[in-house]
């Protein structure tokens, strides 16, 4: 409980520093919201300036794999596992009018995740799944806010060895993922804030999804696949 209070104090110090009237608290909370919105807006603009050509190239490569029958595998830990599920969902269950594409989050099967973690080790929890399911022509996307997740790095190494297109998303300075020779594409969010990193990564992968859809539509109208 104290850890939660410490976290809240760090995010919203004005609630703890002094006794204040309601109007002051509301005004300072509104200011905190504006500051955080400005931070993520600036970060997204920085990524757009620095990564736009690489995001477009990655989407092109993903579209080529998917058009040829490839599948998307996504994975991450903690909040990144939720993002992985969100990315898989938008490919597999897109808005009306977009192509349905095969995608799987490797964090979704609790029995598999807990069995591998317990019997083999948590570092192998994604790598073992890719070794069993992945095939040349598929795509592996690993998400990590720090870039330092050993199980994400291990899975991307296995994916590269099996001929999958490998995509990493990290924060800070890229961590372990920045040291991998196995990655075809890496997007590093230059921030030390977990919250801003995850928000920016969401922007990156939704942009990848949209550009992939546009490339597939340009290559071949998907009337039969649209919903």
Plain-language structure description:
Helices cover 57% and strands 11% of the residues. It has 227 residues and is of the alpha/beta class. A five-stranded parallel sheet has the order 2-1-3-4-5, with helices on both faces. Strand 3, helix 6 and strand 4 form a beta-alpha-beta unit. The C terminus is likely disordered.
**Count of strand segments:** 5
Characterize the main sheet. Answer: 5 strands, parallel
Classify the helix fraction into a percent range.
55-70%
Round the mean pLDDT to the nearest integer and report it.
88
User: Helix and strand succession?
Assistant: HHEHEHHEHEHEH
Strand content: 5-15%
Strand line-up in the sheet with most strands: 2-1-3-4-5
Q: What is the general shape?
A: globular
What is shown here, in short?
With 227 residues, this protein is α/β, with parallel strands linked by helices. The protein contains eight helices and five strands; from the N terminus they run ααβαβααβαβαβα. The chain has helices at 2-11, 22-67, 79-92, 110-119, 127-133, 150-161, 175-178, 194-219; strands spanning 72-76, 103-105, 139-143, 165-171, 185-189.
């Amino acid at each position: 409980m104290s850890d939660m209070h410490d976290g809240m104090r760090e995010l919203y110090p004005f609630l703890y520093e002094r006794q204040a009237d309601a109007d002051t608290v509301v005004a300072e909370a509104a200011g905190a919201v504006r500051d955080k919105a400005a931070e993520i807006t600036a970060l997204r603009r920085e990524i757009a300036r620095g990564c736009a050509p690489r995001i477009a190239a990655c989407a092109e490569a993903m579209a080529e794999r998917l058009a040829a029958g490839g599948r998307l595998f996504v994975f991450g830990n903690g909040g990144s596992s939720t993002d992985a599920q969100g990315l898989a969902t938008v490919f597999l269950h897109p808005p009306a009018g977009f192509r349905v594409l095969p995608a799987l989050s490797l964090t979704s099967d609790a029995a598999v995740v807990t069995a591998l973690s317990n019997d083999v080790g948590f570092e192998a929890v994604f790598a073992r799944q890719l070794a069993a399911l992945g095939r040349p022509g598929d795509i592996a996307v690993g998400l990590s806010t720090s870039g330092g997740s050993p199980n994400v790095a291990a899975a991307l190494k296995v994916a590269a060895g099996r001929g999958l297109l490998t995509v990493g998303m990290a924060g800070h300075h890229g961590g372990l993922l920045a040291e991998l020779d196995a990655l075809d594409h890496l997007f590093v969010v230059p921030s030390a804030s977990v919250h801003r990193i995850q928000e920016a990564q969401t922007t990156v992968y939704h942009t990848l999804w949209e550009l992939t859809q546009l490339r597939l539509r340009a290559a071949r109208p998907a009337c039969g696949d649209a919903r």
